[in-house]
Amino acid sequence: MIRLPLEQWHADDFTDPHATVRWPTVREALVHQPGAAAAAENCMGECRSLAEQLRQELCPPVPAESEGLETLCSACPGFVCWQCGTRPAPAAGVPCRTCGPVVLLTENQARQRLNWRVEQLAAATGIHGRRVNGIVNDSIGAKTRSGVSLAQLGVALTNVERWLEDPSSMPTGLPAPSSGDLDKLHGAELRKLLSTYVGPLAGALREPIPFVQKQLNDWMGAPSRAEATDEQLRDAIIQARAWIEDPDSYRAYTHPEPPEPGGLTAPMRTKNAVADFSCNLCAAPVMAGELIGRMPHPRQPYVPMAWLCAHCLFDRRDKPRLTDVLLRVFHHTFSGSTTTLLNTTEATVLLEALLTVPAAEDDEQLQEAITALRQGIDAPEPVMGLSYHPARAAVAALDTARLQEAAAGDAAVLAAVAQHLAEWQHNPQDIDQARYRNRTLWRQAVLESTLTPTVLSQRGGPFWV
User: How far is Cα 32 from Cα 154, in angstroms, rounded to an integer?
Assistant: First the structure.
């Protein structure tokens, strides 16, 4: 019996960082060189090229023939190494084993070198190392490299080093249909394609598959894949692939940077509208081809908004219209908040609108609103809080005055906000508030059962604005 020496090798699946496996130390060439052994075995020990022999006999070959004669052996029907000219080569233009030695690696060395190369490849491609390892394993037909043969490790190492020379040549292990190809797929075809991304995405993100499926549903704005439209499914396929290639972009999506006081957080995604529609927040019309987007998911009790126009995505806090301020009053009140937070610019827009309303000295709450807005504008803080009753009085005063200079959109939103605030105050539907856990749920019920549906009751909420 032949006893092989043993060496320790740390498991590469990282399930137990302190676990080791005892592997036999096997030394052999990882990359097979056809003919190398036969060339060495048949060598007569007098290697010299025909070109060199002719030169020594003072009959140098003509330049056109010398290139081929440099590799033909003068002592046997084989080939000579083109580098040293003194040892046998397996083929023309191939170095001998001394000039181009075959790397001999132990089991441990092969795995260590492969892991090191995978790290380099991950850095070169910008793809997460976990995903690169999966692609490497796929290339040798293995789910894990634990227990694979030395020959399989050789193939994997060869693949990785070839991909390192040209990182763009590395396969992603996933189908990569173009936008044109995606447009040709529909329904079940798109769902089947999306399902192929879920497992690799879960692996790259180190997240459970059910959680990843939920995140994809949230991304495309659909309760489930079964209920998603073709356009939503195409969006999810494109995004799943982007997250696999750059897991850090997924972290930015799930943990967005908090906004500056009085400002907006960055949209979680944007795209060009494929058809005409209206903004989910302000109801302004949006034409096909215009920029639209969705905001990050808010905290409870706020609910996610659907697609928004470019103004609501980027400018509603810095360049507010009266509609934007009215929507803040509505949704903050809708959520059960006792104050509406306004930045200085928003406070200025609301104050200017109130100053056009005929003076009502006996309306103490309206006067309180005007005073609070003036103080907030002059204060050094970036935001101010407008209390519930003064805010409701301001909306009622603007609605009663029916501002002549208000834009059509402002007038529609103003009428809707005034209507719903009045309904929540007087409860004309006589909905029992005691049946609901909080004011938000009760107001949601009043909004849904309103006798005069508005653009706000159709969109629901509350939205974090």
Answer: 9
Q: Is 381 exposed, middle or buried (0-12, 13-18, 19+ CB in 10 A)?
A: exposed
N-term to C-term CA, the chain: 78
Is 321 within 8 Å of 410 (Cβ atoms)? yes
Half-sphere exposure of 175 (CA within 13 A, CB side): 15
**Angstrom distances, CA of residue 88 to CA of 28, 83, 260:** 20, 11, 73
Question: Is the Cβ–Cβ distance between 181 and 238 less than 8 Å?
Answer: no
- Give per-residue pLDDT as tens, 12-65: 444 444 444 444 434 444 555 556 666 777 777 788 887 888 888 777 776 666
CB atoms within 10 A of CB 147: 9
**Residues facing residue 20 across a β-bridge:** 10
Structure tokens at 349: 């827009």
Structure-block tokens of residue 219:
């991304």
- Cβ atoms of 154 and 31 within 8 Å: the answer is yes
- Contact call for residues 86 and 73 (beta carbons, < 8 A): no
The model's pLDDT over 119-144, given as tens digits with 9 standing for 90+, comes to 998 888 777 787 788 888 888 888 78
Q: Low-confidence residues of the chain, pLDDT below 50?
A: 1-29
| Residue (of 409, 344, 398) closest to 372 by Cα position | 344
Structure tokens at 286: 């949006």
CA gap 456, 408 in Å, rounded = 15
- Burial group, residue 156, by CB count within 10 angstroms (0-12, 13-18, 19+): buried
The pLDDT value recorded for residue 340 is 93
| Residue 113 near residue 105 (C-beta atoms within 8 A) | yes
Yes or no: say if 139 and 148 are a contact pair by the CB < 8 Å rule. no
Long-range contacts of 115-120 (CB under 8 A, 24+ apart): 115/12, 117/157, 117/160, 117/161, 117/164, 118/160, 120/164
* pTM (two decimals): 0.60
Does the bond joining 301 to the residue before it have cis omega, within 30 degrees of 0?
yes
Structure-token pair, residue 271 = 């795209």
- Give the pLDDT score at 308: 93
**For 258, how many CA atoms within 13 A lie in the half-sphere containing its CB?**
4
Between CA 191 and CA 234 the distance in angstroms is 9
Name the CA dihedral angle for 36, 39, 43, 45, rounded to a multiple of 10 degrees: -30
Query: In this structure, which amino acid lies at residue 53?
Result: Q
Q: Quick one: tokens of 458?
A: 């159709």
